[in-house]
Write a structure and sequence with these properties.
Elements: H1 2-65, H2 71-83, H3 87-102, H4 106-117, H5 123-139, H6 143-151, H7 159-172, H8 176-188, H9 193-204
Helix pairs in contact: 1-2, 1-3, 2-3, 3-4, 3-5, 4-5, 5-6, 5-7, 6-7, 7-8, 8-9
Pfam families: TPR_21
Main location: membrane
Organism: Rosenbergiella australiborealis
Length: 207
């Protein structure tokens, strides 16, 4: 039994030696690739974190400097929206859109919000942008576009607000029944008491 055991160990040793003789180069290359991939991944993560921090600092700087009567500050933030394709770019588009609304420049407000939708994959942030965009599109007399924008709003948290806006848009189109149905849906959803009361008041106007 002992002789068999020793022979078996020697056989295994020879097999291992032969395996590394035949595959040693490939294993070495694989190890190098594995290490390189790990290093590359860590570099990418650090790069992403540094980029996010830089975007955050730049966003805060530009929004602090933003003034409606200062075209240079508006242009600086608009450039940031076009260049920073991330959530900070989307947040900047919201800020810039409000500035344009305050200036009664609705076409540019719409343009900024459309850009903002391309900059973030965050569902809640996209919902906020779409809700504001739908309002502006309604003011621009493009109610069908506004309704399409609302259709893309995702998340139960936004159902009530979207229903309220939908009701207003449908009413602007002369669809009183559709508006009333939208507000009834909104009242059933999880919304603030103030918004629920507002929609109920709108419904009461039809009675």
């Amino acid at each position: 039994m002992e002789v068999y055991s020793n022979d078996n160990q020697r056989d295994q040793t020879e097999v291992v030696k032969q395996f590394f003789a035949n595959n040693g180069k490939a294993l070495a290359i694989g190890a190098v690739i594995g290490v390189a991939a790990l290093v590359g991944w860590r570099f990418w993560v650090n790069h992403q974190q540094n980029d996010a921090q830089a975007s955050s600092e730049r966003y805060q700087q530009l929004t602090t400097m933003l003034k409606a009567d200062n075209p240079a500050s508006i242009q600086a933030l608009a450039s940031f929206v076009e260049q920073d394709k991330n959530s900070y770019g989307a947040l900047a588009s919201l800020t810039l859109a409000k500035t344009f609304v305050d200036k009664n420049d609705l076409p540019n407000a719409e343009k900024q919000l459309v850009l903002g939708l391309q900059d973030s994959s965050d569902q809640n942030l996209q919902a906020v942008i779409r809700l504001r965009l739908a309002r502006i599109q309604s003011e621009l007399k493009t109610p069908d576009e506004a309704l399409k924008t609302l259709d893309a709003v995702k998340g139960d948290n936004w159902t009530g607000i979207a229903a309220d806006i939908r009701g207003d848009i449908l009413l602007s189109k002369g669809d009183k029944q559709g508006a009333a149905a939208a507000w009834r849906e909104g009242i059933k959803s999880e919304v603030s008491p103030a918004l629920k009361q507002m929609m109920q008041t709108k419904l009461n106007n039809f009675s």
